[in-house]
Predict the 3D structure of the following.
Amino acid sequence: MKYNLTSEQQKKVEQLKQMSPQQWESICKRCGICCLCKIQIGPEKQTSNFYTNVCCDAFNPVTRQCTMYASRLTRIKQDCKKVDLDIILDGTLLPRTCGYVEYIFGPAPFKTSVNWKLVKPETLVKLDTPLQIMQHLILDSQNWNKR
Ligand code: SF4
Ligand code: SF4
């Protein structure tokens, strides 16, 4: 989903474009939410995104850090995407509370909370298990991406 940005939001986008890699990294809040697996539920074109208690197998839920950050984009299982402006403005890939999203759109009007003690790497969870059995993995997060 793309947005019609206000001039103020467009200015923020331009500021992000000018940032050095260090400045860019400093915007990340290290919340870890983007490393949680999401699932889409609902009929086509009306699907809702839900975050789950399942994380990428390279994520450490205790430290909330990626264990292979430097090589994350070239590892054999390449399902990690570099956070860039397309991802930030996509509207379905990052929570509203993400530092980059807040930088453009202002502070999120709601909180996101994850019980990290319950989060397990995807290698320990059969993600092809029927949805009914997976229900307990789904977080109450239907609106987390809403702008
Ligand atoms: S590879 Fe690292 S940064 Fe990428 S989704 Fe997995 S844990 Fe997150
Ligand atoms: S959701 Fe945003 S702020 Fe949180 S870890 Fe991912 S990129 Fe950083």
In short: The chain has a mean pLDDT of 88. The longest helix spans residues 7-18.
